[in-house]
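Hi Y.,

Following your request, here is the sequence exactly as I used it, all 116 residues.
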Amino acid sequence: MRLHDDAEAVAEQVFAALADPSRRALLASLAAEGPSTATDLATRLPISRQAIAKHLGLLADAGLVTAEPGERRRVRYRLRSAPMQVAQQFLAALARDWDGPLAALKEHLENRGDPR
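Below is the corresponding structure, written out as tokens. Let me know if you'd prefer a different format.
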């Protein structure tokens, strides 16, 4: 598997994880409040603790959060930025690939004149 394929696979997992508004809310809460337990997140968000645990598992599978042991066997979740950076780089490369064809289309449309 080439490096590009690996980056594309990571980006795909990130995009799938970000597709759900509850998971985006969890990530936003972790970004604002720092590492938190599922119980902490349940007190801040209108999502059940069970749903939060499920979403955190999916976010962990995508590499966007990591679980760390905390005090009294409580697991704290912390953001991981590396997968998001890979997804951003993937989007930037995709945008660069589109810049040339879009510029050519714009030039073509501007230069074809008024058909009236």
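The chain has five helices and two strands.

Thanks again,
Q.
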